[in-house]
Amino acid sequence: MLNSTLDISGHQTIHHAISEEMNTAIYITKEIEKPKWIISDDLINVKHYFFLIYFDEDSQLLFIHSSIKTPQFYDSLIERFAIGKYGRISKYQLNKVLADIKNPEFFNIGMQNRSANSGESYRIVAGPNAETSIRKSHGKNYANGHVFMKGLSDGDNVTVGYSSGSKVWSNAYQRIPDYIKWCQSLAKKIVSDKVVKTNTAFDDLPIGVVVDQFPLQVHGATWNGMTFNEFPLINEVNEDEIVQTNQLLDFEIIIDNENSSLDELCIVLVHEDLSYKLSYNFTDHFKLIEPLECDLFIEVNGNQIPLIDYFNDNPFQFYLDNFATVSNHEYFAPPDEKDFQFDSSRIVQIDWVTSNTDIKKEFYKNQQDKVDNANKNSIHETLNERLMQNGHSILIYDHGTGEVADFIAFHEYDDRVEINLYHVKGSGGVAPGDRVNDVYEVCMQAVKSQAWTCNKQTFRRKILDRVCNHDEKFLIGDSNLFKTVMDSGKRIEFFFTIVQPGISQADFSPKLSYILAAADDYITNNGYQSMIALGS
Questions:
Q1: Cα dihedral value 520, 526, 529, 530, nearest 10
Q2: Cα 517 to Cα 425, 439, 521, 524, distances in angstroms
């Protein structure tokens, strides 16, 4: 629809031309503004804007050149000019614009942290030959973010860059026909089967791949990084009236594996007596499975966003077998197993038999359940007794939906406070051994809990929210002592401990070694000490 009008608030269109031959439309607009610091009309600012819309028929790609470069404005242009079903091209496809460029030299490289729980979400490397600063190990935790480089194409010097939002650019000034030719050359690369190989360290940064199903089983999910930053509310609305409000981050994301497949996931959001069922696939993304009596909205900075729209714009990060991930609807393959091995001697051995512990029983719902189980201790009870004897200044039992960890132990020193998050999972059998699924689950819990430890303020806020009106959660200390410790000005150090009796030094397979090492790598690369494992 190249003949569409371009109406921009505050702009006057001073030139509009269409070339049917080139499938191109151009617009030049003028904006007149009076500075806010003057009352009279004696001084005004006049700005001119240029917009070019080109549709490449062979590739079915729409190219937009715009003087206004916000994502929202690009979206408004696409809605005006595109017909039928459309979407941004993936980073994997966009990376093909680097194909066939020889002697590459990178000026600027962005690395996107693949962990939604990290305090560092993005890292930029800049300077001559920036690619030499990338290490092979970066590929385990970072993905390709953006790039700007130069090289030779057909003997000519070229520059090219791309970033998120399907943006690509070159540091050049060209006439419109030459610009169209440049777009055509990019289109051919983007839709081709070319594999980009720069033969530099840049190749070690993985790029998300668009897939139509999950290549591996999904074990867990966590919130999008933006969700952790925004602390949004979820509102139930009936006839334009908010009838219930909760913190979205208080909900637990549960993958219903019995009703899921590689084609589509069944996801349940659970908080206390509330539950919402969603489906997710790579075509339609998120949908509500069951109709509700009310509408669901996510509230961010006072704005009400329909729940499904919010999740489609801020999708969960899914964790798959071997710590492969799906992030922003794109698949990142698991790291090579040879890169991860966990030393079995690091497993702290616990004598569960002497402590009369049923290693299959994580916790009891009531005392009668324990009586019916020959009064054997649950893992929680045994760990509780162990922690109560370790001289902690504060000990919190936070087990439950939306937990930070099962146990949170504080040890205060003169110059620092050590906070240890204990995550517990019962064993799948009576004897310790190869409990792959159990270990996956407890490692996922440890990895996901980093969302609350990225800074002191986030952790403080989350804990106070969890213990509000629940003083019984404090096994040692209370809310006032917690506030005093957190506000003491001492350095805070977080530790992560998994408790899984199925892990044994004597029976430790390469698969378990890989899972533990991958989880440990997630944690240490986010700036924490090595993960601690309590086993048998």
A1: 10
A2: 18, 11, 6, 10
Domain ranges of the chain: 11-81, 91-165+195-204, 218-332, 340-535
pLDDT at 166: 87
Task: Give yes or no for a contact between 428 and 436, defined as CB atoms under 8 angstroms apart.
Answer: no
Q: At what angle do helices 436-448 and 510-524 cross, to 10 degrees?
A: 0
Residue whose tokens read 């700005």:
47
Confidence (pLDDT) at 351:
92
3-state secondary structure 298-321: EEECCEEEEHHHHHHHCCCEEEEH
Q: How far apart are CA 184 and CA 63, in angstroms?
A: 10
Closest CA to 262 of 246, 274, 280: 280
In the prediction, which pLDDT does 120 show?
A: 63
- Kindly report the CATH class assigned to 340-535: alpha beta
Neighbours of 255 (CB within 10 A): 20
pLDDT tens string 47-83 = 999 999 999 999 999 999 999 988 778 888 888 888 8
CB atoms under 10 Å from CB of 410, counted, come to: 20
Give the model's pLDDT for residue 435: 67
Q: Tell me, rounded to whole angstroms, the distance of Cα 87 from its chain centroid.
A: 21
Q: What are phi and psi of 36, to 5 degrees?
A: -70, -20
3-state SS assignment for residue 369: helix
Looking at residue 313, its pLDDT comes to: 86
- Write out the two tokens for 112: 């996107």
HSE-CB of 381 using CA atoms within 13 angstroms: 18
Long-range contacts of 300-306 (CB under 8 A, 24+ apart): 300/230, 300/232, 301/230, 304/235, 304/237
How many CB atoms are located within 10 Å of the residue 309 CB? 12
Max Cα separation, the chain? 91
Q: Which residues of the chain have pLDDT under 50?
A: 433
In which region does residue 329 sit, left (phi positive, over 0), alpha (psi from -120 to 50) or beta (all else)? Answer: left
